[in-house]
Amino acid sequence: MIGSLFAGHLGRVAEVSVLCRREEHATALNEEGLRVSGRHDFVTRVAAATDPAELPEPELALVATKTTELAAAAARLDGHWPEAAVMTVQNGLGAEEAFDGRRVISAVTFMSGTRHSDTHVEYILDTETWLGPYGETPYELVEETAALIVESGLKARAFEDLRPAQWSKLIFNATVNAVAALTGLPHDPHFAARDEPADLGHLVFELVEEGKRVAAAAGVELHEDPWEMNVLATRRGSRHYPSMLEDVEARRPTEIAHINGSLLREARRRGVETPLQTALYRLIKAKEASYS
Amino acid sequence: MIGSLFAGHLGRVAEVSVLCRREEHATALNEEGLRVSGRHDFVTRVAAATDPAELPEPELALVATKTTELAAAAARLDGHWPEAAVMTVQNGLGAEEAFDGRRVISAVTFMSGTRHSDTHVEYILDTETWLGPYGETPYELVEETAALIVESGLKARAFEDLRPAQWSKLIFNATVNAVAALTGLPHDPHFAARDEPADLGHLVFELVEEGKRVAAAAGVELHEDPWEMNVLATRRGSRHYPSMLEDVEARRPTEIAHINGSLLREARRRGVETPLQTALYRLIKAKEASYS
User: Fold this and answer.
1) B278 FRET partner, CA 20 to 30 A, in A7, A22, B57, B229?
2) Distance from CA of A135 to the nearest CA of B (A)
3) pLDDT tens per residue, chain B (292 residues)?
4) What is the mean pLDDT of residues A103-128?
5) Which of A198, A278, A287 has its CB closest to that of B184?
6) CB atoms B185 and A282 under 8 Å
7) Helical spans, DSSP H, in B86-225
8) Rounded to the nearest 10 degrees, how much is the dihedral formed by the CA atoms of B67, B134, B217, B268?
9) How many C-alpha atoms does A21 have within 13 Å on its Cβ side?
C-alpha cells in the first residue's frame, strides 16, 4: 500500500518501474497503469515485472514491504542494480542492514491508504514521510529524494539524523499496535484516558515511559514525545485501525518481532528493564500461536 | 452450570429445590427433572420456582452464580429463609460478604461441566470442591456439608481455614483467565513454556509471583503453589477453555472486576506493587470496551 502510493505519485515526475512478486500483478500494472484515488485522483503509467533483470536500473530503489517480507525483498535485489541507492520505509529499526554495501536512505512514513486492487490504491492520511542518511550516504541525496517526493505531490522532510524521529515512531508504534491487537480497540480515546485507575491510558503511558528509557540509554533524544503523539492522534478522532490489529483479526503473522522486537533488543543491549513491553511481546506471540 | 451439577447430584441424597430466574426454566425443571450426563448419568427430580416463597425453607442455600450476578442473587434471598446456611461458590474473594447476618460456608470448586439446556448438564472435570467456615460458622456444619456432597457422588473436602486454598485458586484463576482471554489460547502448554525469552510461561510465572507477594503480605500461606497448579493442569493436556476466554469470544462482560479485582484491591490495601496484573486488568477492561 505504501509502495503503491509512492509509485503512483512518483510516476508523475520520474520514470517508475515496479518489481512485483506475482506475474498477474505485473501484467495488470503494465496494461492498466496504477490508479490513485482519495486525496488525489489520477492514473500513472508504470513499467512492471517480476524479475529485476527485465527492468531498467533505477537511481533509487524504494523498498516499502512489510518487515516480515524485507529479507525476501533484499534477496531479490541481490546482484542487481549495483549503483541504485535504496530507500527503506519500514516499521522498527535496522531495515537498512538488509542492504549492506549500498547507499541507503532511512525513512519512516506516517501516511496511509487502502489497497483496493493490484492497480488501485486510495490515499487517505496525507501525513509526512521523513528521510535521513544511513551510514555514509550523503545528505544531499536525502535532500534531493525528499524534494522529488514533494514534487510528486506527497509530503516529505529530510533530516540530517533520522534516529530521533525513527525512535519516536518506534515507541509509539510498538505500544499502540500491540495494545490495539490485544484489546481489539482501534486507536481511540481509550488509549489516552487516565481518569480511573483501570483506564487504559495508564498502561499506554507506562509502556511509552519504558520505551523512552531505552531511547535515553541508546543516546537518542526523541524528536516527538510518543505519549503526546498518542494523545494528539486519539484527539483527532481518526480511530485509526493499527495494522497489528488487522493482522490478528485476519489471523496473520504480525510485525511484533520487528517493531517491538527492535525496541526489546535495544533494551537488552543497553541493560534497560522493560517488563510491560516484554509482557506485551509475549502476549502477542501467544496470540499468534493461538491461530493454529 | 456449577449450580446444576450440585443440584443434580444432591437431589439423589436430599430434597433439592432450585430458585430460577426465568419462569420457563422452573417449569421445565418441574416437568422434566434435571439430567446429569458425562461422568455420571441420571435424572433427578427437583422442585423449582422463581420466587423463594414458593419453595420450602432449606437447611442450606447453595449460591453458585457467576460473580457478576451475585448481588442480584443475594437481593432475591433478602427476607427469605432466615435459618438457612448459605454456601457461596464463586471465583475471587469476598462473595461471603453478600450474605452478612447468615451462617455462611465459603467454597471454591475445581469441577467443571457444560450446560446443554435448562434441564441437562454434562459433568466433565470431576475435581474437588473445597469448603471452609466463614466468620462464626461452626466447622461441624462445614464437615456435614462436605460429607453430604461426597455422598451425592461429587468430590469435596472440608478445611478449617479455606483462605490458603481460596488464595491459591484466586492467583491461578486471575492469571490463567486473563492471559487466555487476551491471547485466545485455551489453558495449554504455552502457559508453562519457559524455553525461549519470548515464551508465555515467563509472563505467567511473573504474574503468579506478583499474586504470591500479595498473599504473603495478607498473611496467607498458600495451600498449593499456583505456578505448580498451572504446570500440572497444562501437562494433563486438558486444554481447558477458561470462562473469561469464552466471555470475550462471546463479547460478554467478564468476571475481571471480581477475580482479578479482588487480588488488586488486596494488593492496594497491603501496599504491594502488581504492575503486570494491573496491566492485564486494564487490557481486559479495554477489551470489554471494544465490544460496543
Assistant:
1) B229
2) 31
3) 899 999 999 999 999 999 999 999 999 999 999 999 999 999 999 999 999 999 999 999 999 998 889 999 999 999 999 999 999 998 888 899 999 999 999 999 989 888 999 999 999 889 899 999 999 999 999 999 999 999 999 999 999 999 999 999 999 999 999 999 999 999 999 999 999 999 999 999 999 999 999 999 999 999 999 999 999 999 887 788 898 999 999 999 999 998 999 999 999 999 999 999 999 999 999 999 999 8
4) 92
5) A287
6) no
7) 139-151, 163-183, 200-217
8) 40
9) 9
Contact call for B190 and A276, based on CB within 8 A: no
- What residues contact B126, with CB distance under 8 A and at least 6 apart? B39, B111, B154, B155
Is there a contact between A286 and B200 if contact means CB atoms under 8 Å apart? yes
Chain B residues contacting A via beta carbons under 8 Å: 179, 182-185, 190, 198-200, 202-203, 206, 275-276, 278-279, 281-283, 285-287, 289-290
- Three-point CA angle A39, A42, A43, nearest 5°: 140
Reference A131, options A94, A104, A100, A113; nearest CA is A104
- Short-list B258, B36, B2, B261, CA closest to B111: B2
Reported as a single tens digit per residue, the pLDDT across A22-39 is: 999 999 999 999 999 999
Rounded (10°) CA dihedral B9, B15, B19, B25: 60
Distance of residue B257 Cα from the nearest chain A Cα, in angstroms:
10
Instruction: From B215, B193, B216, select the one nearest B204 (Cα to Cα).
Output: B193
Q: Measure the CA–CA gap between B178 and B175, rounded to whole angstroms.
A: 6
C-alpha distance from B284 to closest chain A C-alpha (Å): 7
Decide if A183 and B286 are in contact by the 8 Å CB cutoff.
Answer: yes
**CA atoms of B174 and B255, how far apart (whole Å):** 9
Find out whether B132 and B106 touch, Cβ atoms under 8 Å.
yes
| ipTM for this model | 0.83
Largest CA distance in chain B: 60
